[in-house]
Specification:
- With about 450 residues, the chain is of the alpha/beta class.
- Helix content is about 30%, strand content about 20%.
- It has a domain at about 1-160.
- The chain has a 16-stranded mixed beta sheet.
- The longest helix has 20 residues, at about 75-90.
- It is globular.
Length: about 450
């Protein structure tokens, strides 16, 4: 009976497999090939449905490609099989928009010939993909700098491309690329993620979401100049800090106003005074990588942070990973009212600052904490601080709070191996006050912030 179903009904059945489906060339066994083995009619629908063949991941970034390919039969076999799968997908995908991931595996210079070209079979795979550049809709490309010329065979023709993640490895071997940016004239491109890309020409005015991880050749002034050209930017991720005194920098670089910006993720709080964003709703400050303590100690830093926060009337979510109790105290003192605060820290002093110096902590609806590498004593103290914030002297203090989410670990323990009496007490207080206690996964990939509507951590109820 099943073999006599109309093709439209077979497609309805198949459509349940499509959400999130992609063909991973290196793990092709996980692809539902069995859908083509049921009967002739079902196989026909399977092979002629372009949606099955238009999302492909080609990943050469694993161990068998770490050496010289010419001496590795297994590596060459994988490349040959990948080439066959790519050809199959390009044929069966027809004109359907293409979602593509291509991750280089060339780590060894011996895989380039005397002219600096990659292996022939590898180039053939790139050429097949580039030949279908008119179909590219979303692309994640990770290439060695010497492989970039292959993209120019498209002659800048990417009429459907709307989202691009481009990461160039070994850019130091090719510091000034002698050719133009292959995506400079992609007219629909509005979401980009750039890492180590020194070709700095895009249609910035069309950008709605930008992630930047610049190489040394790109200065902070270059970034600000590009942002000045934007007209409708909604999301911005900057993986760059400024190891200088902010007051000195403000004499040379004027702040940029981004009126449509709603999501901002920065690494290094010294960037904040240069981004004016009155419509901001979600703010991620990853300050934990940069020890600029001498700047945080200056009174001017507090002034600049306060000036940044003052116009933010729409901020609803804030994630803060401070370097020390000192910068945490400044941020928490200046923080406006938000519904949801995430704190990521290894220091119990940060929680003390939240409890004692943050006037708007009492107005939170949701509090999320990632407490890592705490010694048992500090973890016990952290639990006591949280419990007192919720209820003190028999009275509920945080009237609006309805969710407390945590991810905790002591040195040597897994995140869930927590049995501190203070956290047991915290659990009882939450139950008494009707507050949901949950576990937390804070880190969304930053590119997901750019390419999707993601802006909040993932909260999982216990």
């Amino acid at each position: 009976m099943w073999q006599y179903l109309y093709p439209e009904l077979v497609f309805e059945v198949f459509s349940h497999f499509l959400p999130g489906l992609r063909l991973i060339a290196s793990e092709s066994d996980s692809f539902p090939w069995y859908l083509g083995h049921i009967c002739r009619g079902w196989r026909s629908v399977f092979t002629t449905t372009p949606e099955f063949w238009s999302t492909i991941r080609i990943d050469f970034d694993y161990d068998i490609f770490s050496g010289n390919w010419s001496t590795s039969r297994k590596a060459l076999t994988v490349v040959d099989r990948t080439a066959t799968l790519v050809a199959l997908c390009m044929e069966r995908g027809k004109d359907h928009p293409l979602l593509l991931e291509f991750i280089t595996g060339i780590r060894d210079s011996r895989n380039f010939d005397a002219a600096g070209s990659p292996p022939k079979r590898y180039v053939e795979i790139l050429d097949m993909l580039v030949a279908h550049s008119a179909r590219w809709w979303e692309a994640r490309i990770v290439l060695d700098a010497r492989e970039i010329p292959a993209l120019h065979k498209a002659k800048g023709y990417f009429p459907q491309l709307y989202a691009l993640q481009l990461l160039v490895s070994n850019s130091e071997t090719c510091p000034s690329l002698p050719f133009p940016n292959p995506f400079e004239h992609a007219q629909q491109l509005s979401r980009i993620s750039l890492s180590n890309v020194s070709t700095w020409h895009f249609k910035w005015s069309a950008m709605k979401a930008i992630e930047i991880h610049p190489p040394g050749a790109i200065t902070f002034q270059d970034i600000i100049d590009a942002l000045r050209e934007t007209k409708c930017l909604e999301k911005l991720v900057i993986h760059q800090s400024i190891p200088y005194d902010i007051s000195d920098m403000l004499h040379d670089i004027k702040p940029v106003t981004l009126p449509s910006l709603t999501i901002l993720y920065i690494e290094g709080a010294t960037v904040l005074p240069f981004i004016l964003s009155p419509s901001l709703r979600c703010l991620w400050i990853q300050n934990g990588y940069h020890n600029y303590e001498k700047y945080y100690s200056k009174e001017s830093f507090h002034t600049h942070v306060a000036a940044f926060f003052r116009p933010l009337q729409h901020l609803r979510f804030m994630m803060l990973a401070p370097w020390s109790g000192k910068d945490a105290r400044i941020f928490l003192q200046c923080m406006p009212r938000v519904d949801h605060l995430c704190l990521v820290t290894r220091l119990v002093d940060v929680l003390k600052s939240l409890a004692m110096t943050c006037p708007n902590a009492l107005h939170l609806q949701e509090l999320s904490l990632e407490l890592s590498e705490f010694c048992p004593h500090a973890l016990h103290e952290a639990g006591s601080i949280l419990a007192t914030m919720l209820k003190d002297n028999g009275e509920r203090r945080m009237q609006r709070i309805d969710v407390v989410s945590t991810q905790m670990s002591t040195i040597g323990n897994s995140p869930r191996d927590i049995s501190s009496p203070s956290f047991i007490q915290l659990k009882y207080i939450c139950e008494e006050l009707g507050i949901r206690l949950a576990t937390l996964s804070i880190w969304a990939h930053t590119y997901d912030l750019v390419r999707t509507s993601a802006s909040y951590p993932k909260i999982i109820s216990l």
